[in-house]
Predict the structure of Proline--tRNA ligase.
Amino acid sequence: MKQSKMFIPTLREVPNDAESKSHQLLLKAGMIKQVASGVYSYLPIAKRVLNKIEAIVREEMEAIDSVEILMPALQPSELWQESGRWPSYGAELMRMTDRHGREFALGPTHEEIITSLVRDELKSYKKLPVTLFQIQNKFRDEKRPRFGLLRGREFIMKDAYSFHATEESLDATYQDMYRAYSNIYNRVNLKFRPVIADSGAIGGSHTHEFMALAEIGEDTIAYTDGSDYAANIEKAEVVYTPNVQHTEEAALEKVHTPGVKTAQQLADTLGKQLDEIVKSMIIKVDDRFVMFLIRGHHELNDVKVKSYFGTEVVEMASEAEIEGIMNAKPGSLGPVGVDKIEIYADNAVQDINNLAVGANETNYHYINANAGRDFTVKEYGDFRFIMEGEPAADGSGPVKFAEGIEVGQVFKLGTKYSQAMKATFLDEQGKAQPMIMGCYGIGVSRTLSAVIEQHHDDNGIIWPKSIAPYDVHVISVNPKQEVQKELADQLYADFSAHYQVLYDDRQERAGVKFNDADLIGVPLRIVVGKQAAEGIVEVKVRATGEKFEVPVSELTAKIETLYSDLA
Ligand SMILES: O=C(C[C@@H]1CCCCN1)Cn1cnc2cc(Cl)c(F)cc2c1=O
Ligand SMILES: [Mg+2]
Ligand SMILES: [Mg+2]
């Protein structure tokens, strides 16, 4: 394609509201334009890359017998009423009303649609398993869209759904998808790790997230070098090894602690270590309040709390709610004398006694508080975040942390939707059974961004050849120079026979052309400049910066070699 006909509005300066590298480069390379917060247009270069990523996704889906369909973004609320999810999603679910006053959701995901589609068609176990997928825009009204395509409100997802008569069949498809995802991320040259994840509200039991490694990633992965163990930190199990250090139970004592609000302040005031302090938190679970106790040097893991209570509705109680229940302010809360609400504690709280805790009175705390004598813990459990260096649940060694961008997730859904929506099949005994489901998502537009996060330098993007918008970038330095223009035109025509060629034929200064070429990041570059008269051109490899003076007669061979050596 000639750049004089193209639409690549590159920018010179970095847009200041773009915090992530990929967001900056997507804007600078003229690949996206923001329409609204979290809503973007994909411009020609981005669209070409998306097409290539989607082509790889399609190939890998077809390879495991997953068949492409296309479902509507407009989802009638009736289906969400059937699944019971209409009331359970708040502002994130974009809703609208049609001209007849009927309510719709703009699809954030398609479990309801696909289940209603399949239940009307597949009646017998003989017709199962079936796996269907689509690639389509999704809508989620994120509270804080950020980092460009990494967290948008309208984004492109490949979502697949599978229907089974048996758990074994679901397991086979789950494994197929797991391998297909690994193939896809390898083929787009993305460094990734599959991690054990939490299935959250979607239900089901078993799920893995695919994390692209990148500092900007909002997820933290706990992994070990010794094995392929990796878990989203939300889910990473803490192996509780009792390390009981109890002393003689001392008498409960109330101490005046003016201005002490945090665990650290309490530790400093009492001349104790942070891990000798126990924090008390009031959590709202559904519509009731509970207290959680956790050691001063640990953090409460809200996802583990949600999973324990089996609900998404878990949040820290507000100051007003705390005062209403405890008649005390956060910063001086404690379990002593609390019997109106249940008390839960992280396992590690059992290791120490004679605890320093809030006295439920501003500026006062207790020392020597002891479970059993002074308060009752309803249940101890794994309620905290794992810390770097602690042992991995599979015994493969101490965990390390890394940041990741969630670019995919595979779920075993079970019968949550088929039960609720009466998607049944007749089994071999002719008995109606709910179909067993799996669902599998890839963030296609997010994957594009993750590739940029992992493949760029200070001058711009460095596309892996599998998804590069073009293979070869031909640049004529000065098209006004007849010899240069003719040679460049000729090379554009010749190389277009075997490669996808972007041809910078613009009347622009050389510097502008080279800057733009670095930004756009086509893997190989042929520069037709002053030495055109001698039949010499310059070849540049974008990834390494290597440059070669090449006689036109050797150019085809040189490009072939360099292209095959590209990652
Ligand atoms: O989407 C999934 C699970 C899988 C992911 C892979 C493809 C199929 N679905 C989970 N999820 C995430 N955010 C959501 C946001 C809204 Cl507003 C909603 F109404 C529903 C969901 C929701 O269900
Ligand atoms: Mg997540
Ligand atoms: Mg997820």
